[in-house]
Amino acid sequence: MAVPAVAIDDADPDDTSFTFTAGELRSLRDEMQRFLLGYRFGMQEIETKISILREEFLQTHDYNPIEHVSSRLKSTDSLLEKVQRKGVDADLPSIRENITDIAGVRITCSFVADVYRLFDLLSEQDDIRVLNVKDYIAEPKSNGYKSLHAILEVPVFLSTGRIEVPVEVQFRTIAMDFWASLEHKIYYKYDRQVPGALLDSLKDAADTAAELDTRMERLHREIRGATPTPATGVIRL
Fold first, then answer.
1. What region does 126 belong to: left with phi over 0, alpha with psi -120 to 50, or beta?
2. Which of 114, 138, 198, 221 could form a disulfide bond with 109, CB atoms 3.0-4.6 angstroms apart?
C-alpha cells in the first residue's frame, strides 16, 4: 500500500498531490493503524520480557538492575514526517524495511555494567534477533551523549500469522538518562540552534555524569564484593 501526500478535494486544481474521498481517507487511516498495531504488540513483547527479568531479579537475586522502563510508539504524523525527511518510498513494505525506530523501549539501569548485562540477557533469548547495535557508551557522540542502542527483532503472533517486528531498545544509566533529558529540553527550547557556550557546558556535564557513573559503580562493587569476569570485564553480581 502506498502512502501518498494527502490533498483536500477542493484544493488548488493545479496542485499535483493526490486527492482522496472521505472513504479513501478512512481506508488509509485504518491501514496505517493496522500497520502500527503490529509495532505496538512488538513493543509490548519486549516490555513483557523486561518485566519478567525484573521480577526474577527482585525475587531471586536480591538486586534489581532495572531502575525504570518507558516506551513510545511513533504517531502516524511523526512516522510520515520521517519517511519524507529520509526519502523513503511511501509504501508500507519500504517503511517497514527502512524505519526501524517506530516502536521504542528505554531501559534505565543503575550502572554501566547493568546496561551490558541487560542487553546480553535480552539479545541471547532464542526468539530475539539482533539487527543492529550502536554503542554510544564505548564511543560517545561528540556532544557527550551516551547510551546503548539496539534494534531487536521480536516475533508477534497475530490471527493472520507470525510477523517479525523491529523494536529500538535504548539502555542507559540514571546519569545518562538525566543528561539526555536535559539535552532534549535545551535543543527543544532553542529549536536546535543551541549557543556554543551552552553546548560546551553540556559536554562538561556529560563528562561529569560519566565520572559519577564510574565512581558510583566502584562503590557498588566494594559494597557487594563483585568482581569483573576476565573475558569481558562486565561486572557479575
1. alpha
2. 114
pLDDT at 68 over 90: yes
The CA-based dihedral angle spanning residues 168, 174, 179, 182, taken in that order and rounded to the nearest 10 degrees:
90
Q: Are 64 and 55 in contact (CB under 8 A)?
A: no
**pLDDT, greater one: 92 or 109:** 109
Say yes or no: domain 23-176 is CATH 3.30.460.10: yes
Domain boundaries defined on the chain? 23-176
- Within the chain, strands assigned E span 6-7, 18-19, 66-73, 103-109, 129-135, 148-158, 161-173, 227-228, 235-236
C-alpha cell at 160: 493472520
Could you identify the residue written with the cell 521504542? 104
Alpha helices in 15-151 (DSSP H): 22-56, 76-86, 92-98, 112-123
48-84 exposure pattern, b = at least 16 Cβ within 10 A, e = fewer: ebbeebbeebeeeeeebbbbeeebebbeeeebbebbe
Q: Which residue has the higher pLDDT, 31 or 177?
A: 177
Residue 24: active-site member: no
Predicted TM-score of the model (pTM): 0.79
How does residue 74 score in pLDDT terms, banded at 50, 70 and 90? very high
Over residues 90-108, the pLDDT tens digits come to: 788 888 999 999 999 999 9
Catalytic hit among 168, 183, 211, 222: 168
Question: Residue 67: pLDDT band by 50, 70, 90 thresholds?
Answer: very high
